[in-house]
Amino acid sequence: MHLETVLPPIPAKRYFTIGEVGELCGVKPHVLRYWEQEFTQLKPMKRRGNRRYYQHHEVLMIRRIRDLLYEQGFTISGARNKLQEFMQAERDRRRQGQGVLEGVDVEGHDALAAEPLLESNFNAVAASFSAMSLEGVELMRRELSEIRRLLSAEVQLAH
Fold first, then answer.
1. Where a domain ends, among 49, 66, 98?
2. Each residue of 65-76: b (16+ CB within 10 Å) or e?
């Protein structure tokens, strides 16, 4: 039996050092360097002295890799295949114009439990898109509010 680790929230920052990512994802820096070799999708930016800087989407990907390996018991090869399948499915959804709520898995969870997660992460997400226009942030807020309303309606129907 394995215990799921509760990971800290990801701060609204543009770049993260390897040490920060290690703490946010519950893995050691040498593991992250190894995973870069095994998962070609993982390509942190490198600056002076080969220092790695990860972006928000890479932190989410590392958390997904960690979950596949440590929580779901996949091998490196199996996790690599599963990650490729997930990324292809996400690309297909984007092509079809469907929104993807990245990093939030509401399937199999109580929708009301996801509601505070959506609300608490909105400000962090909005801050990370500082270059986005005010209209874009307002559109995102409306979309998240609609998702929350739909989740609440599903819970009420289930009871």
1. 98
2. bbbbbeeeebee
- C-alpha closest to that of 12 among 129, 101, 117, 118: 129
- Here the tokens at position 55 are 């972006």
Same domain, 90 and 108: no
Alpha helices for the chain (secondary structure H) = 18-25, 29-38, 56-66, 76-95, 111-128, 134-158
Q: Which two three-digit tokens encode residue 80? A: 């690599």
Picking from 94, 92, 32, the residue whose alpha carbon sits closest to that of residue 65 is 32
Q: Tens of pLDDT along 110-145?
A: 444 444 444 445 444 444 444 445 666 777 778 888
Strand, helix or coil for residue 51: strand
